[in-house]
Write a structure and sequence with these properties.
137 residues, alpha+beta, four-stranded antiparallel beta sheet, 4 strands, globular
């Protein structure tokens, strides 16, 4: 079975709180078959600069109650090394959510590439805010 390309998003939050407001949008994409969540990792940096990372199964429901609804297919894809790398860019008293997901909507195209003996030479992702700024300029 062909796999779609995988993206990892790093989403920053002020403070150390995860409200879960983005979970419904993630769940809609999963239920529609657009993406498959491979892994989720929470990175927290306290006011003293101490970094903690939590996998979704270790998340305290009080910290991010809505996130426990997300079904993760490949626990461990995101790890401590990823958290350490991201923490370098985090300000004290802030946090980040790392989410790795497969773009399952691309599976038919990946299969077509394979059938045609074609290879992807490069893939470029342009963030939505950059596109919006370019279109309004």
């Amino acid at each position: 079975m062909p796999l779609g390309p995988v993206d990892v998003y790093v989403i920053g939050f002020p403070g150390i709180k995860f409200t879960g407001q983005i979970v419904p949008a993630i769940m809609d994409l999963v239920q529609a078959g657009t993406i498959r969540v491979l892994d989720v990792l929470f990175v927290l940096k306290d006011a003293d600069g101490v970094v903690t990372s939590l996998s979704i199964e270790d998340l305290d429901p009080d910290l991010g109650p809505a996130f426990v609804e997300i079904e993760v297919s490949d626990h461990g894809v995101l790890n401590v090394e990823d958290a350490e790398e991201i923490s370098e860019d985090l300000a004290p008293n802030s946090s980040a959510l790392l989410i790795a997901y497969e773009n399952t909507w691309m599976e038919p195209l990946v299969a077509a590439f394979a059938s045609a003996d074609a290879v992807v030479i490069d893939q470029i992702r342009i963030p939505a805010d950059v596109v919006a700024a370019a279109l309004t300029a």
